């Protein structure tokens, strides 16, 4: 990102916005993944593949870069962006992310409702599994969206509260939420995916071959059991 457009401080701000928006879009993809899995499980898992996941991740990054550039460009005084300066008050990127935010709320609400009331657990193991899933979805998605909420509010209010104590408070909340969200991303991934936990354990016990063998044995047993249960449904 050239300094002539945003300046050194602007470049840092752009990167913070970029990482935050990538995190936001990734969480949205997680919620959409669960939503589709609950709505149309057979059709969804038939089309799901590694290649599709890679394509979606690449599209999320491209989408985040484009939106971050447009958003910062609309708030920049550089000549490259002057023709957009009149759009600052009605920045379309704010409405796009507000719409995505609302979609997240709807998908999270449906996912939690489905997990809590529609799974119909039969035995203790399934009840405990559903409870753990409910907690994970609530904590991960809920925490991130609450951290992103100040940015949504500030994006619509900052033109009306400039240079006021409320503006300072909102800026602090927005910055805190942005940094906290993308710093917490690796933790969310580890909590959500069992494979991440196994890989992290292998990394921690790099010098202990016997411990690594135990971890790999546990990993093989877990995924073998998962595959058997999946095909017995």
From TrEMBL:
Its main location: membrane. Keywords: Cell membrane, G-protein coupled receptor, Glycoprotein, Membrane, Receptor, Transducer, Transmembrane, Transmembrane helix. GO terms for molecular function: G protein-coupled receptor activity. Gene3D superfamilies: Rhodopsin 7-helix transmembrane proteins. Transmembrane segments: none annotated. Residues 14-189 form the G-protein coupled receptors family 1 profile domain. It is found in: Cell membrane. Pfam families: 7tm_1. CDD domains: 7tm_classA_rhodopsin-like. GO terms for cellular component: plasma membrane. This is G-protein coupled receptors family 1 profile domain-containing protein. It comes from Magallana gigas (Pacific oyster).
């Amino acid at each position: 990102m050239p300094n002539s457009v945003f300046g050194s401080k602007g470049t840092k701000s752009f990167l913070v916005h970029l990482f935050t928006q990538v995190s936001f879009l990734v969480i949205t993809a997680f919620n959409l993944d669960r939503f589709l899995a609950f709505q149309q499980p057979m059709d969804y898992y038939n089309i799901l593949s590694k290649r599709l996941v890679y394509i979606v991740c690449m599209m999320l990054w491209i989408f985040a870069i484009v939106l971050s550039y447009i958003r910062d460009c609309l708030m920049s005084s550089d000549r490259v962006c002057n023709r957009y300066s009149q759009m600052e008050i009605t920045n379309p990127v704010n409405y796009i992310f507000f719409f995505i935010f609302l979609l997240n709320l709807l998908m999270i609400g449906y996912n939690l409702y489905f997990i809590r009331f529609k799974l119909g657990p039969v035995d203790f193991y399934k009840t405990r599994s559903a409870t753990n899933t409910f907690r994970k979805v609530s904590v991960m998605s809920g925490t991130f969206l609450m951290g992103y909420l100040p940015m949504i509010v500030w994006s619509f209010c900052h033109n009306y509260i400039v240079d006021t104590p409320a503006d300072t408070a909102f800026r602090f909340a927005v910055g805190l939420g942005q940094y906290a969200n993308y710093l917490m991303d690796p933790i969310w991934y580890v909590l959500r995916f069992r494979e991440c936990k196994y890989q992290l354990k292998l990394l921690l016990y790099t010098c202990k071959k016997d411990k690594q063998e135990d971890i790999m044995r546990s990993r093989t047993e877990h995924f073998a059991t998962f595959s058997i249960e999946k095909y017995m449904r």
